[in-house]
Write a structure and sequence with these properties.
By secondary structure, this protein is of the alpha/beta class. About 40% of the residues lie in helices and about 20% in strands. It folds into 2 domains: about 120 residues, Response regulator (Rossmann fold, 3-Layer(aba) Sandwich), CATH 3.40.50; about 130 residues, Winged helix-like DNA-binding domain superfamily/Winged helix DNA-binding domain (Arc Repressor Mutant, subunit A). Strand 3, helix 3 and strand 4 form a beta-alpha-beta unit. The radius of gyration is 20 Å and the shape is elongated. The C terminus is likely disordered.
Length: about 270
């Protein structure tokens, strides 16, 4: 059974939403404020958190931040406002999706199921190979990225975006392909993708340097260009493939490091 932690401070909305989710055969734990939400999350370890932004005691952004300090539990944030700064802040803090009120319960359930499918797909990706290119290491089994001996904390969504771009280094990856790979058959959202790309650029910068640039190609998609090594040494990429992995041939051909000077990545 799928366990959901529902965090909502309006009693009527909390009761109605919990009823709808239980009718969909989810197990629902409830919390009416941020402090209670964190206690329930630590005690219950739900499969997904439905988190309202406007909460007493501790707001939704702070709850999300604290969850992300310890876990990659999928989070869907709800808000009564459609402010772009709130949406950007939510994605920068690591939310998996964002839904503005008022919403239809059918859409809420559909988004929950889509997030859970992506999470399940991510768990299956442990068969994908570890990627190493010019000091940048992506480990799908641990969902861990290391650059210049520094671990970069990424959300599962950010990791999937980076993994697809790096394994196709030097080649433009279309927005539609990113949507499908990262968000599944339901597709994605251009604003969400731009927010995740922007956050990736920031997270990958260590001491003023990044392992490469993520550049937008207008009306097409994005391309990752690895940082060039010394001029006498061509940029190289290697893949550590687990024995018997079906990804071996695919990953080996996909990883073509493009020698390019590291430049300031253009905005999404």
């Amino acid at each position: 059974m799928i366990k959901i932690l529902l965090v909502e401070d309006e009693p009527d909305m909390l009761d109605l939403t919990a009823y709808v989710l239980r009718r969909e055969r989810f197990v629902v734990a409830e919390a009416a404020d941020g402090a209670a939400a964190l206690r329930r999350w630590k005690a219950d370890r739900p499969d997904i958190v439905i988190l309202d932004v406007g909460l007493p005691s501790v707001d939704g952004f702070e709850v999300l931040r604290k969850i992300r300090e310890e876990s990659e539990t999928p989070v869907l944030m709800l808000t009564a406002h459609r402010d772009r700064p709130d949406i950007a802040r939510a994605f920068n803090l690591g939310t998996d999706d964002f839904l503005a009120k008022p919403f239809e319960f059918r859409e809420l359930v559909a988004r929950i199921r889509a997030i859970l499918r992506r999470a399940k797909s991510g768990q299956q990706e442990i068969r994908e190979p570890k990627v190493e290119t010019n000091g940048l290491v992506l480990d799908p089994e641990a969902y861990e990225v290391t650059w210049r001996d520094t671990v970069c904390r990424l959300t599962p969504t950010e990791f999937r975006i980076l993994y697809l771009l790096v394994t196709n280094a030097g080649h433009v990856v279309s927005a539609n392909r990113l949507y499908t790979y990262v968000w599944g058959a339901d597709g994605g959202d251009a604003n969400a993708l731009r927010s995740h790309i922007s956050h990736l650029r920031h997270k990958l910068e260590v001491d003023g340097q990044a392992p490469g640039s993520i550049t937008s190609v207008p009306a097409v998609g994005y391309v990752f260009r690895p940082m060039a090594l010394a001029q006498t040494e061509p940029a190289t990429s290697t893949v550590s493939v687990p024995e018997g992995s079906a990804m071996s041939a695919k990953a080996g051909s996909a990883l073509e490091a493009a020698p390019a000077q590291l430049a300031q990545a253009s905005s999404g």
